[in-house]
Amino acid sequence: MDPTKIVVIGAGSASFGLGTLATIIRSEKLRGSTLCLVDINAEGLETMTALARRLNREWNADMTIESSTDRTQVLDGTEFVILSIEVGPREELWKLDWEIPTRHDLRQPYGENGGPGGFARALRTIPVMLDIARDMERYCPEAWLINFSNPLPRLCLAVDRYTDIRVVGLCHQVQVAYIIVGAVLADELGIEVPPNLQMTSRPSAIAARHEMARRAHLHLDIKAAGLNHFTWMLDIRHKGTGEDLYPLFVERFLAFDRGFQPLTQEMLRILGVCPVPGDEHLAEYLPWMHDPLTKPWEKYDVDLYAWHEQEARRADGFRHAAAMVVGEAPVDQLKQVKSEGAAEIVEGIQGTENNYVEAVNVPNDGHITNLPYGAAVELPAVITGMGVQGLALGDLPASVAELCRREVAVQSLAVDAAVWGDRELALRALVFDPMIDDIDRARAILEDYLAIHADYLPQFHGRWSW
C-alpha cells in the first residue's frame, strides 16, 4: 500500500487520541505514512505527540510524526482527516445542557445526542465542524473526513449538506448489541459472562463490557441499521454454522431477567425488533421517557451520565499517557486496543482492501428505502478504493422507520438552524423533538440555551456567518 497522509484533529485527548494513534501506528499497511496531530490544547498535544513518536520508534512504523495547534499548517495534501472534538468543556457543558430543561420541568433521560441536550450540543459544534470542513475544501478537497464527534449524525449531515467534503461517521455503539445477545444466549453459545457485567456507561463498567463484546464477537454476526445511537438489530447469525439466531434470541430475551435492559426488552416486546444502543441512549429518542408523573427513568432504571466520574477517568487517561511518554508505563498494551474503524477505512480506501465495517454513518442513498434520501443513516459497509459502500438493506420494519423518520426531521431542522442562526428553525427543531410536549416550554428552553451558551453560539449573535 502506498503511504498516505493522515491528520487527527482532537489528538490531544487521552480518551480519543490513545486508541486512534495506537490503531494507526500499529497498522502494517500504513507503514511509512505521515501522521499529523492537531489540537488547540497545546499541553495535551505535546504529550500525545511525544507518545506517538515513542510508538513509532518502538513499533518500527517508519512514520513521519508532525503536530500543530493550527490545522491549516498540516492539511495541505492530506488524504484522511480523523476528527473528534468538543466545543467547550465536555462534562461541564453536557451537565448544563441537562440541567437547563429541568428549570422548566423537563427531565431528559440522558441528554447527549437526542432531546434538548443533543440539540444544544449540535448548535455549539456545527459551526466549528463546518469551519474545519471549509479548511479542507481549501487545502485538501479530495480528502475523506472520518468523524467521531457527537451528536454524530447531525454533524455528518451538516458537512454533507453544506460542503463538498466526503464524510463518514464512526461509532462503537453496535458493540452493545453483541453484549446483549451474548449475555442472553450465553448458555447456548458457551460464553462465560463476566461476573461484574453492568450495562451502564460508568467507567467502572467499561472493562467488563469490552470483554463481553469481545467474547460474543467470536460466535456472532449481527447486522443492524437505523440512525446513530438509534439502530435496530435486523439479523443475528451464528458465525460457525450460519444459523439464524434471532428467533431464539427473542424468545430468551423476553423471558430473561427483567432488570437487564428493561427498556430495550419493552421495545422488543412492543415492536418485535430489538434496539441496539442500550437503554441509556435509546431513551434519548423515545417520546415516552420524560413524563414527570410516571417517572419512566425510574421505572426502567435509566442512568444519567456519570459526569464527574468520566471527568476523573479522562484525567487518569492523560496521566497514564504522560507516564508512557517518559517510560514509566509500558506501551505494548496499546497493541491490544480495539479499533473503532478509522484505520480500517484508511486501509480500505487507500489500499482497496475491501474491508467490512459493522457500522458507518453515511448519507442515505437508497440504502434504507423507507427513510428520507440524504438522511445520515447508520448501517454496515464495505470499504474499497471506491470509498465507503454502504449495504443496501431495503425497508426497516414499519414501526421502527416511523420512529426514525421523526428523528431525521428533528436532525434536519437542527442542522439548518445551527448553520443559519435561525431562531424560528431552532424553535421548530425543539418542538418536533419527542422530548418536548409543550410549546412554551420549548421556547423557554431555547431562550435559556441561547443566553447561557452565547459564547459558544456565534451564529445566533451575529459573530459567525456561513
Helix content: 40-55%
Helix tally? 17
What value does the average pLDDT take? 95
Spatial arrangement of strands, main beta sheet: 3-2-1-4-5-6
Largest beta-sheet characterization: 6 strands, parallel
Radius of gyration based on Cα positions: 22 Å
Topology diagram in text:
Elements: E1 5-9, H1 14-25, E2 34-38, H2 42-58, E3 64-68, E4 80-83, H3 90-102, H4 115-139, E5 144-147, H5 152-162, E6 166-169, H6 175-184, H7 186-189, H8 206-217, E7 220-227, E8 230-238, H9 246-254, H10 262-271, H11 279-282, H12 296-299, H13 307-325, H14 342-351, E9 355-363, E10 376-384, E11 387-390, H15 398-420, H16 423-432, H17 439-452
Structure characteristics:
alpha/beta; globular; 466 residues; 17 helices; six-stranded parallel sheet
Structure description:
This protein has 466 residues and is α/β, with parallel strands linked by helices. The protein has helices at residues 14-25, 42-58, 90-102, 115-139, 152-162, 175-184, 186-189, 206-217, 246-254, 262-271, 279-282, 296-299, 307-325, 342-351, 398-420, 423-432, 439-452; strands at residues 5-9, 34-38, 64-68, 80-83, 144-147, 166-169, 220-227, 230-238, 355-363, 376-384, 387-390. Helix 15 runs antiparallel to helix 16.
